[in-house]
Amino acid sequence: MADLAPRSYLFVPGNRPDRFAKAAASGVDVVVIDLEDAVPPTEKKIARAALAEWLSTNSTPVAVRVNDVNSEWFRDDIAVCRAPSVAAVMLPKTERIDDIFLCEFAGKPTD
After folding, report:
1. What residues make up the domain containing 80?
2. Element of type H or E holding 15
3. What radius of gyration, in Å, describes the C-alpha atoms of the chain?
4. A Pfam family this protein belongs to (predicted)?
């Protein structure tokens, strides 16, 4: 039988790392760590660092909702998404196909 489409998504604020493991163990189909609307601007950097630390020790596949391509946080968000356990990236406020290409390009290693 083919894999079924996910039926349940659990959004977790990126500035609440205390909830990441609990969400991953909840049995939900997809855990989405939200770095965008759920995180106030003053906490974006801290949330991203907390996510990067958690991803370095976690193997559960997650999705990450990044800030939009025109934000000052986009490239740093995408850099965190290079972790092997990031299975998907949610790109908010996408209005053009070029936004998707920019997301793909920004996620490539620069070495």
Report:
1. 9-106
2. none
3. 14
4. HpcH_HpaI
Q: Which are the contacts of 18, defined by CB distance < 8 A and separation ≥ 6?
A: none
Which helix (H) or strand (E) covers residue 106, if one does? helix 97-106
Single-letter amino acid code for the residue at 37 = D
Residue 43 in domain? yes
pLDDT > 70 fraction of the chain, expressed in percent and rounded: 89
Q: Does residue 14 fall inside a structural domain?
A: yes
Number of domain units in the chain: 1
Element (H, E) at 30: strand 30-34
> Which band of pLDDT confidence, cut at 50, 70 and 90, is reported for residue 105?
low
Which pLDDT belongs to residue 64? Answer: 96
pLDDT given for residue 110 in this prediction? 45
For 40-96, the DSSP string reads -GGGHHHHHHHHHHHHHH--S-EEEEPPPTTSTTHHHHHHHTTSTTEEEEE-TT--S
User: Does 111 reside within a domain?
Assistant: no
